[in-house]
Design brief:
The complex is a heterodimer of chains A (415) and B (107). In chain A, 68% of the residues lie in helices and 0% in strands. Chain A is mainly α.
Chain lengths: 415, 107
């Protein structure tokens, strides 16, 4: 019984996107593909415990989903008084298209990440149709009511159909721009997984980070020489590697300087480092993801926080600021500057960001930490209060609260 | 599949001679490549008249049905196999007429 459940979980992980993709290609309709795939998996849950796991679960699921789709189309045709059955009669197992499963999933990915769709819809569709996450899971991950998420996905699918957003990997000339759109979606999915913004979910959501990595690997099979694809994959791997050390047993966020580096996933670190070295060797000017990956490579190369090459980190941030002059990058640069030039210099840089970042919890958390290190406990406390108010992640809230409560407010400090 | 490609503009100024020339070149290409169905420029929204005869008693009103800062200045109807092709054409059309463009499928 446990084996059957494991087999279903594994089939869902490995076959979901392939079933959806095969049906989309056959019926040209994402709605039918999604619903019939979900029905096929539900049938597996009902039948496999008694009938046993079929020898080829993927083929069984595709065939079952095909039948469900045909049933549904027949029902709808009957209701609409249409007679279009002939084309649906044969062909239970359409042959794999040339290029195979990977190409099918890529096609689906490019359709879900099409620039004509709203960004939130791209993220939601990718998680639903390729990641196989359920609607409630996606709604929870992005902190919106289920009905809102349902409408978002339904609307996006309707637009794909009505405007005829094509189901294919874009032409070579369009690929660079389209791939960069896909990377943006994958980065959003990963970040939401790595620091979930809701207080009601797990602080780190491996389903999201894992899916983002899986899809980044898939895009890399299409564009192995694309520096930003490699960069994003490396960035995700080097971040994911630290996941085991990121939340303490008591559910508190553990910052980089306090993490048990022995708990990091050495294989992921090694793979990430390999990708970063590969990009450095090309001598091509790095893009945003490659620079972020390089920064993470410096962190994950250090035995402990004192051994970190902070001048290298700041130099990489300087390059990054030139590419992306956003205040969030400037904030992260200031955190590195604190290690190199001291908290006083860093605080001055952070304070200059107040206007754009006043509503961002990390701005206040960074200020609080710098003020604490400078012994300005009163001001640090106020900054922690504001950061706690704005933070959504439960592990981060726990960490900030402990830090605030450990402030030495007595005797009164200069402030 | 046909798409309505609307030209959106926010002033009453007509296309300049340079813009007109670029639009002509673009239209020639649409025709040569089989994307052309129809195109037209529209007079200013202030010249519009609205009629409502839903009750069988025609109400005639002066002016556009929607007052807004941006309005429909002209349109193409294009033939394209899918949205990617339509968007690519619209991207070039926007450059040619030097205006913002909306692409909408025709049922």
């Amino acid at each position: 019984m446990i084996d059957v459940r494991a087999a279903i979980t594994q089939a869902h992980r490995e076959e979901w996107a392939r079933v959806v993709a095969a049906l989309t290609r056959r019926f040209g309709d994402l709605d039918i593909a999604e619903e019939a795939s979900a029905e096929a998996f539900a049938t597996a849950v009902a039948r496999w415990p008694a009938d046993g796991v079929p020898p080829n679960p993927g083929a069984w699921l595709t065939t079952t989903a095909n039948r469900k789709a045909i049933d549904r189309i027949r029902r709808e045709n009957k209701r609409d008084g249409k007679q279009k059955e002939a084309q649906l009669l044969s062909d239970d197992d359409p042959p794999e298209p040339p290029g195979g499963i990977e190409d099918e999933r890529l096609r689906l990915l490019f359709t879900c990440c099409h620039p004509a769709l709203a960004v939130e819809a791209r993220v939601a569709l990718t998680l639903r149709l390729i990641g196989g996450l359920t609607m409630p899971e996606i709604a929870r991950a992005f902190l919106v009511p289920e009905s809102t998420m349902g409408q978002r996905i339904t609307r996006a699918k309707a637009k794909i159909k009505a405007a005829r957003i094509p189901y294919r990997v874009p032409a070579a000339a369009d690929l660079p721009a389209r791939v960069s759109g896909v990377l943006a979606v994958l980065f959003l999915v990963f970040n939401e997984g790595y620091l979930a913004t809701s207080p009601d979910t797990d602080p780190v959501r491996h389903d999201l980070t894992g899916e983002a990595i899986r899809l980044a690997r898939l895009v890399r099979t299409l564009r192995p020489a694309d520096g930003e694809v490699a960069g994003l994959l490396a960035l995700m791997l080097l971040t994911e590697a630290r996941r085991p050390a990121r939340v303490s047993a008591s559910g508190e966020l553990v910052t980089l300087d306090e993490q048990d580096r022995g708990a990091w996933d050495a294989a992921l670190v090694a793979e990430g480092h390999r990708l970063v070295r590969e990009r450095l060797a090309t001598r091509v000017a790095p893009g945003r993801y490659q620079l972020l990956a390089a920064i993470n490579a410096v962190h994950t190369s250090a035995r402990d926080v004192r051994a970190t090459d902070w001048s290298q980190v700041v130099a990489l941030y300087d390059q990054l600021v030139r590419l992306d002059p956003s205040p969030i990058i400037a904030l992260n640069r200031a955190i590195a500057v604190a290690e190199l030039d001291g908290p006083e210099v860093a605080l001055a840089a952070v304070d200059r960001l107040e206007h754009p970042l006043a509503g961002y919890h990390a701005y206040h958390a960074t200020r609080a930490d710098l003020l604490r290190r400078l012994g300005r406990a009163q001001k640090a406390r106020a900054a922690y209060d504001r950061a706690i108010e704005l933070a959504g992640n439960s592990a981060e809230t726990a960490y900030l609260t402990r830090r605030r409560d450990q402030l030495n407010l007595d005797p009164p400090q200069r402030s | 599949m046909q798409y309505l490609v609307s030209v959106i503009h926010d002033s009453a100024s007509l296309a300049t001679p340079d813009e007109m020339a670029a639009i002509d070149v673009f239209n020639d290409r649409l025709q040569a490549e089989g994307h052309w169905v129809f195109a037209a420029g529209l007079a200013a929204p202030s010249s519009a008249t609205v009629i409502d005869n839903r009750d069988g008693e025609a109400m005639v009103t002066d002016g556009p049905f929607l007052e807004s800062k941006e309005y429909l200045a002209g349109f193409w109807i294009m033939e394209a196999p899918d949205l990617d092709v339509a968007l690519k054409l619209a991207t070039e059309g926007s450059k040619a007429c030097n205006r913002k463009i909306e692409v909408r499928p025709i049922l």
